[in-house]
Queue: 3 jobs
Job 1
Amino acid sequence: MGRDGPHYSWGENKKNCSYGFASLRPDGFVGVTHATQSASVGKTKPVNATGGTLLVTADTAAAGAALAVRVVFAGKTTPCKALKGADVTDHALSGCDLHALGAVGKEVVLELEMAGGAVLYTFGFR
């Protein structure tokens, strides 16, 4: 949408103006990625698991892109089902039920493995 009209100022300084509109998905401003095709592994500082389901906003639709998350709690590592072939917002990862682990309300560490240009924007709990 645009408009070619005066920007109201005085004298010869009148300017044309335009209106613009953009739509961004929630949490899609800044992401973490690994630039090469090989996998990269990192981990978070301990975070409070405020819910039993792990949510991610991520891009893995590019060919070969994948995001794998493992939850480390009480000396055990539990893998979530890897995310591949989709760009998602607040997507619930399956296979790592934090209620069943007894981790809700406690600190967990997330091990993040990204490959093929995957981008992780946010993670959270529900």
Job 2
Amino acid sequence: MFAAVAASALLALVPPLPAHLPVAGRELFPFDPVILIGTGERLEGQAARESSYGNYRYRFATEASQKAFDAVPSRFAIAMGGGCARMGPLSGSGDVGRFEVVNDQIYIFASDACRASFLKSPKDFLEVADDPFPTDARGVELNALARRWLRADAACPREIVVWGARMERVGEIEHGVRTEVRLGPNLTFAELGTWDTNAWWTVATFGPVDPRTQALRAKRSNTQGEQPVDDAQFEAFRRVAMCEPLFLSRILLQPDAKVAGGGAAEWKVGATTLTGEILRIHWRGVTVEWLVKPATGQPVAQRAVKRARDMRFAAVTEAFSEWNDRGGVRVPMVRTDGTSTRRFDAVDSECVPSAAPGP
């Protein structure tokens, strides 16, 4: 157990991801979803009429209901992949006994308090796509500077792992806690958290589909079965990935990314005022702004709309510091919004910077 291990042992070499369990069994939603959405009536379906989608099974009271569901299952299935509607698509599964139909979608919740909070203002908790914008000349210039400073063009033969480990005391017991972000080939991104020997992580491939390799989209754990990631969860995880500087530095290389200058600015983070020039980056429905030093391209802060601590979407500004300068990549080891701080310990990589980074 981690609890019995000295803290120094936690700061050893990066271990491989723990083995995950096979795909979990699908839970049964109690009512015909097509009739529930259409009329509000709660009719139980028949075992002879059953379809599966995502992490759930559905039964239907009529043949017409099943045909409508099978034609477009995402239209009638539980939204957010079954995550608690207040806590988001990537949260733990909600309770199928706690559901509400809102704007012709079925949402489930982890608790009655989550349901009450969501119903007060559903739009505050729902993922929305950011509006795109055209690339401009200053954006291209700042992009080139940021890519060069970050060494984003580095050739990396294996995945890059940014990780942090600490001991956390609860009462008289110390627990080992580890957090990681991983970036692999073809924009494969993973986020992992562990508590003692229990681990949970989400992984997805955001690059183009290659028929020779398997595109990953899953929530995994060594304590429960694997869960597929549906489209809503995939888009939510894209926003998570875009808010990670390691991933975003590679988005600067993507031909379909939009980059634009936002002019000189001062951003306040806690009691600190940061100055620089804004580089706006948009990729497939998500926009992130970096405040960069115009002379070098170094990002000093980041602003993006994401889930805040109360789970509502809000613009969050974070300052970067203590940049890693080893392994051929540059990654900020400390990110703070002025109230809370996220800290990593090291970067594990074997990247070789390009001798002549592209424009």
Job 3
Amino acid sequence: LILMAIAFPSFKLLYLMDNQGLFMDLTLLTGLPLKGKVSIPISKINSKSTEIVPFGVKGASNNIRLNKHSRDITVFNNDIISQLIGHLLGDGSIHYTRTSITPYFVFTQTIKRFDYIWHVYLSLSPYCGRLPLFNPGLRKGIPYPFIQVMTRSYPALIPLYNLFYQPLPQAALNAGQRVSSKDKKVKHIKVITTELLQYLNPISLAYWAMDDGSWTPSGFYFHTEAFTFKECYLLAAMIHYRFGLFCTIQKHEGKPMIKIAGKSMFLFRSIVTPHFHQSMLYKLRT
């Protein structure tokens, strides 16, 4: 009995030593004299920690269930925030479940762009609890399989949700639209406000371009049909102010699209190319 009591804790130790994937690199920002990187098991996170910034080993957090305290003190580093901003302008979204009080992020892309999807997953994997999900979807009756990358629910996503989402009546009023009584029960929708300016940088611009951009001989288009004309003019103004790029608003089937003028393409490429994934460089014709 004594030997068995000694053996069982050893099995766990041997298992952890053989599965380095169960460890996540963490930066702990605490009141203790602790600096730099440390590697600790998720189950051993000190409750005195005030912030956790996951980074490093890709896919390390798969199948690891974080407790509420661990998720509450998780924060996103600046590069990840910039990437999420780019996705939210493109193919990303933030959602609440019916029972949750914290939101989660979802990135959706066609399976034809699998290399890019995997790149996005690897960069966000410390925040994900599962592998990307495959969905054999339909578009206008035609098979259109797509893949979704989903993060866990984190309180750190609430500021980004508040930045991009408003209740429909308020969003419609901001866009100058008439609001009916039915609209008051509709969920939040994605909007563009001036607060976005402080988040725009080369990383966010690059991920936005990879998600929803397309090259033409006369310039580069951002497919912003989901936004209003007023929001697109605001976006174009912020792009010009932040990056010095000349933009115009084009109407496509009655909906707005932002176009980077041909004379700004050299500058545009120099800004976003360092942050473009190899599989998406065709959009820049480089």
